[in-house]
Design goal:
Belongs to the protein kinase superfamily. Ser/Thr protein kinase family. GCN2 subfamily. By secondary structure, this protein is an alpha+beta fold. The chain has two domains: 104 residues, Phosphorylase Kinase, domain 1; 99 residues, Transferase(Phosphotransferase) domain 1 (Transferase(Phosphotransferase), domain 1, Orthogonal Bundle). Helix content is 34%, strand content 26%. It contains six helices and eleven strands. A six-stranded antiparallel sheet has the order 1-5-6-4-3-2. Helix 3 runs parallel beside helix 6 and helix 4 runs antiparallel to helix 6. The radius of gyration is 18 Å and the shape is globular. The C terminus is likely disordered.
């Protein structure tokens, strides 16, 4: 049976199915379009792969959702990534597709998470200021410009991309402009600022532990 592939409808029409895709082939779309596919992470959300686009050699992160995650949850995460749009301090979303029962998202590839970085590197105070600045800019953009609250700020969702830290994983993001009471309680996005403080606190603690302090 030929595995059917469909681009998930996007309001921005960011991508189209690759011109090199052969819909009559039994080879999965991801294997036709990408090569050098390697698993980066696996968890309750699904699996994230590092993959190279065959036509350009550019590398991307491909997220494949777990099969037992509800279709609504998968769709909401795709839509949330669309809503974020383009921002220097937010992980870039390129598009998503569905093949058979599986849904995939194509995302900007980063080096590693803050969580993994502090495990293997000595504590640096300037790094923490950079995290606060970069993720603070991302939250200001989400809260003030977009009226969204992230709801899942943690060191695993702060990614290192070159000289920047980028906020990632918008699956739990919510539009808090729909809740006037929530907006009146905090114009900075209720919960996110405290969660950022906890993520930075984790980084300090882990960094000091690694130094034997």
């Amino acid at each position: 049976m030929v595995p059917r592939t469909a681009l998930l409808t996007t309001s921005t029409n960011r991508i189209k199915l690759a011109a090199t895709y052969n819909p009559t082939s039994t080879t999965l779309y991801i294997d036709q379009i990408y090569n050098d596919i390697r698993e980066l992470a696996h968890g309750g959300f699904g699996t994230v792969y590092k993959a190279t686009l065959r036509t350009t050699g550019k590398k991307y992160a491909i997220k494949k959702f777990m099969e037992d995650k509800s279709a609504l949850d998968k769709w909401m995460e795709v839509k949330n990534n669309e809503k974020v749009g383009d921002h220097l301090y937010c992980t870039h979303y390129f598009g998503a597709w569905k093949q058979m029962k599986d849904i995939y998202m194509c995302l900007q590839l980063s080096q590693m998470s803050l969580h993994d970085f502090v495990k293997d590197n000595p504590f640096q105070e300037m790094l923490l200021w950079d995290v606060l600045h970069d993720v603070g800019q991302a939250l200001h953009y989400l809260h003030v410009d977009k009226k969204y609250v992230h709801h899942d700020i943690k060191s695993k969702n702060i990614l290192i991309h070159g000289n920047f830290f980028k906020l990632a994983d918008f699956g739990l993001m919510e539009d808090f402009s729909k809740y006037p009471m929530m907006m009146s309680l905090s114009k900075n996005g209720p919960g996110d600022i405290f969660a950022l403080a906890e993520a930075v606190s984790y980084s300090v603690t882990e960094g000091l532990y690694r130094q034997g302090s």
